[in-house]
Amino acid sequence: MTVPEERERWTPAPPHTLPEPRQPADERTAWFTYTAAGDQIVWSPAFAAMVGRVPAEKGKTRQILARHVHRDDHAKALGAITEAWTSQATVHTTVRLMRADGGWFDVDCTLEPMGGPDGAVRGIRGTVRDVSARERDRRESARLTRRGETVQASLVEPDPATGLLIRARFADEVDRALRGAGGALLVMRVQAGDTAEGVRPDRNADLLHSAARLVEEKARPEHLIGRVGPNEIAVLFARTTWRAAREQARDLITALGEQSHCWGGLVRFERDAEAGSHGLLIDAEQAWRQSREAERSLTLVAHPVPVRDRQGSYRSRVADALGTDRFTLYSQPILELQTNRVTRHELLLRVLDETDGPQSPIQVLDTAERLDAIFDIDLWVVERAMRLAAEQPGLCLQVNLSGRSVGDPRLTNEVEKLLERYRVDPAQLTFEITETALIGNLSEARRFADRVRDLGCGLALDDFGSGYASFRYLRLFPIDLVKIDGEYVVDLVDNPQDQVLVRALVQVCQAYGIHTVAEFVQDEATLRMLRELGVDYVQGYLIGRPSPVVPGRLRKS
């Protein structure tokens, strides 16, 4: 929902130091010639306008011309020139040219040998035509093809240590059971020795593996089993009476107790109960802790902690903040490095204090997410983003969503309704998921991702590189854009390790067909290095600070 405050090392340069956007190419013919005698370069005014140089500039050499060829295309351009020179035939190629301000564009280049009176080649004449739109479409088509090839087809994956369902997948099944008949949820803690301290990792791994096999052996075929914590194994008794669930839970704990310490918490649930998987797991985990403290094997919770008690007070606070305009939106511009234009904005949530000063909402959002009270906040942000997009056609916005809302089945329907109500072009919106947020239901999150992509919206992943999950999400979700964690950017120029990491992250994203955004860009040296590393977009104080959203006034270029 927000980005951390950036660490400033110096006073950011004023906005006028930003590169000027590339203007549309002159319709007149753009050409250059190179004559070997005297190492002489001549170029037309149209070519000079393309690369952002003074038309009548003196002292032009082939080295100066080479600087305007994208470094990744140097070998290609040299090969084409050599072929035209040696074969004395016209050669066609497509390369990227650099402007003086660092932006780049695509051109079709026709190279013709220039002969002397004796028939020998004395030089080269090149005619260039801007084909950026065509090449952008080609790259986008190739990117989408790579996306289709790299997105994982299935979400089902076992825990590598035990072979059981991972917590997220197990929670999905709990939610599914809640929509059916009643049942119970058991969470068991297994532990070697009197304490967890001092246990060798290999011994603990063996303990978990043997405990998982024992539970699979003792549980009935219709019962689902998952690993929901470091030393926690859960069993879902769906469509089971409370009496039967109690008996089966005691049998399992007794069997596990013969090979290790074991405590359990059993929570009963009814069909369509208010408590979701997150709440039930928390209640069951709290129950096994009560068992350990009371030195008993099992604690029974005949009724889950009422959601009303857990969430009521906080929902009231959220509703009060929404109703009294205590929440507000700020925006931060994002610069596209190819065109040197601000092509999108990220919307950031702020909370107004008693003196109406904007404060970071991190604490509010963290508590709301833990208590399942985040959906109303996210919906408030989405609706206002729709209004802004409707007021300014062509304006592209990145909208932050919590992981729990993305996994809420209501969100997909609400987004479709709002798109229809405000008649917004879906391409204006990119929904951004914070990697560190807990996605409540992976299946629903994938459904949301697939649906918004079908509608024409984009999907982004925040804080990329901050953990293993970010790489995993590249295969789980059809991500269009990732935001490289700002911690790797803020000291990029002076930190060789960060340079290696950012380069690797960019290469991974390029292989997957995903665009990249670098956050926390505060100086021109960092901006230049990010260009060299192949980053597509940048944001930070150098580009623009977060500022209050004023409808109809967001800067688009």
TrEMBL record:
PAC domain: residues covered: 91-143
Taxonomy, superkingdom: Bacteria
Pfam family, one: EAL
Coiled-coil portions: none
Annotated InterPro entries: Cyclic-di-GMP_PDE-like, EAL_dom, EAL_sf, Nucleotide_cyclase, PAC, PAS, PAS-assoc_C, PAS-like_dom_sf
Location of the EAL domain: 311-557
Region (Disordered): 1-24
SUPFAM superfamilies per the UniProt record, alphabetical: EAL domain-like, Nucleotide cyclase, PYP-like sensor domain (PAS domain)
Compositionally biased region (Basic and acidic residues): 1-10
Biased composition (Pro residues): 12-22
Signal peptide (residue range): none
Protein name: EAL domain-containing protein
Lineage: Bacteria, Bacillati, Actinomycetota, Actinomycetes, Micromonosporales
